[in-house]
Write a structure and sequence with these properties.
The complex is a heterodimer of chains A (114) and B (368). Chain A is α+β, with helices and mostly antiparallel strands and 114 residues long. Chain A is 32% helix and 27% strand.
Chain lengths: 114, 368
């Protein structure tokens, strides 16, 4: 119900009572009302819920979140000491097959974790 | 899609799980408030990948699920009237009332239509001045500004044949109701990201302080959920109880003040009954006196209708996180998404529907 999808503003029609935008969601285009995000500009990403933009997506924050996540193995290593972790876990962002394999693991395999 | 796919990266998900496992030293119970988050958690099996003892409790954040049976019956009573076009978000059409649902009413000839946006309902009313067009205004704070705008628009355009059956609920009172319940097991919350995109998160700070409970504003993709869990566990492990914002790309502390202003203009806070939970003071929205003429309950005289829940349905216990769908004797047997007994089996965000779609089996069926 509270589903909100990020999409890019392609064009804005400000002629009506409130601005309406055409928003691109990965190839699918829909109209969205910009009454609540009046400062959104063409090229901005907005989060759209039931035909209304409810928030302008902060692209710097979006990047920052991912950077924090990508930097995480080093943080774990600093806390626990590298001896506690295998090389696959500590690897840099360009990952080897060991990590990709691990991503497929089910709950059974993880049950053995401490 | 940009800003979705990056937050579904399985390699980063694995690292987050490793970090969660590394920082968790004790059992903890974390409630995700929003049904959209429940859907991600169950579909991706995130709850089954967490370290032993770290338990996700699914919260009451599915507006379709908490809309009381009496409101569904009122919707059915209005939709059955001649001359009425009843419009709704698609989710509500298969929610069972005491006798049938909106979809079966439509099959019997009633004019029931699914709309994508509440403004579409106003458009239908403007195009059909000889019909009464009613919109089923359900939702949390995320949806209230959109539904409120429909009322403002009908008012501005002079569309007197538009009205709204309002069933709006608010998240913070539901969280405090969960915390006040006897035997509450919730030790931390993942707050609903899009509710906070509208409302900000200032109103959660007194809850975190008063109940000593960490609250992490969290997004909806797998990496968002996992990072939200990690931040919550870090707080629990270090004895902190703060409001943190994992979903900073969409949420600010102030929220969307423009949307809040419109909500305040159209609606007033009032008591609401939550399906399966009961009455919670100041937990919902009603139309402000200025817009009372658009209130469908009064226009069609259905406010007196009351209803009794199906005795086999344990939706109330599930919505409060006390029981799981797989505990229910009716789960997958007498109650399926095709033939639901209760709302949580209907909505795509309902906990029962999420479990069923993910193929989870009733406990009694799982070999020991």
């Amino acid at each position: 119900m509270c589903l909100g999808i990020p999409g890019r503003v392609l064009s804005i029609d400000g002629a009506g009572e409130f601005p309406m935008a055409v928003v691109d969601f990965g190839g699918l285009r829909r109209e969205a009302c910009l009454a609540y995000v009046p400062d959104a500009a063409v090229g901005d990403f907005v989060i759209v819920h039931v035909g209304f933009a409810i928030s302008r997506l902060d692209e710097d924050e979006a990047r920052r979140t991912l950077e924090v996540l990508r930097a995480m193995p080093e943080a774990v290593a600093a806390e626990l000491g590298p001896a506690d972790l295998g090389p696959a876990d500590l690897g840099p962002v360009d990952l080897g097959p060991a990590d990709l394999g691990a991503a497929e693991l089910g709950a059974g395999e993880l049950g053995a974790a401490p | 899609m940009r800003y979705l796919d990056e937050y579904r990266d399985p390699v980063l998900a694995r690292r987050l799980l490793d970090e969660i496992t590394a920082v968790t030293t004790r059992p903890w119970n974390v409630m995700e408030v929003c049904g959209g988050q429940t859907h991600t958690i169950v579909r991706q099996g995130i709850d089954e990948l967490l370290p032993p003892g770290l338990r996700m409790i699914h919260g009451p954040g599915c507006p379709v699920c908490v809309t009381p049976l009496a409101l569904i019956d009122r919707a059915l009573a209005i939709a059955a009237l001649p001359g009425v076009t009843f419009t709704s978000y698609g989710d509500m059409l298969r929610v069972p009332g005491t006798a049938g649902d909106l979809l079966s009413l439509k099959a019997r000839g009633a004019d029931v239509r699914v709309v994508y946006s509440p403004l579409d309902a106003v458009g239908i009313a403007a195009d059909n001045p000889d019909r009464e067009v009613v919109f089923f205004g359900v939702g949390f704070e995320t949806t209230a500004p959109a539904n409120g705008m429909a009322v403002l628009r009908a008012h501005a355009l002079g569309v007197p044949n538009f009205s709204m059956l309002v069933s709006h609920v608010l998240v913070p009172p539901a969280m405090t109701a969960v915390l006040d319940a006897p035997h509450c097991q919730v030790q931390a919350f993942l707050a609903a990201g899009h509710v906070c995109a509208v409302m900000g998160y200032g109103e959660y700070e007194p809850i975190a302080a008063r109940y000593r409970v960490p609250i992490v504003v969290t997004g909806f993709e797998p990496l968002d959920i996992l990072e939200g869990i990690l931040l919550a566990v870090r707080q629990l492990e270090s004895g902190r109880a703060e409001v943190e914002n994992q979903y900073a790309r969409a949420v600010t502390r102030e929220g969307n003040t423009c949307a809040q202003d419109a909500m305040r203009r159209v609606f007033r806070v009032g008591d609401r009954t939550w399906r399966g939970i009961g009455a919670i003071a100041d937990s919902g929205l009603r139309l402000a006196p200025e817009f009372a003429a658009y209130d469908a309950e009064h226009r069609f005289g259905v406010a007196h209708l009351v209803a009794q829940e199906h005795p086999a349905c344990i939706a109330g216990a599930i919505l409060q996180g006390v029981r799981e769908p797989t505990d229910c004797p009716a789960y997958g047997v007498g109650c399926t998404p095709r033939r639901p007994l209760g709302a949580p089996m209907v909505s795509s965000e309902g906990t029962c529907a999420a479990y069923f779609t993910a193929g989870r089996r009733r406990r009694a069926e799982v070999p020991a």
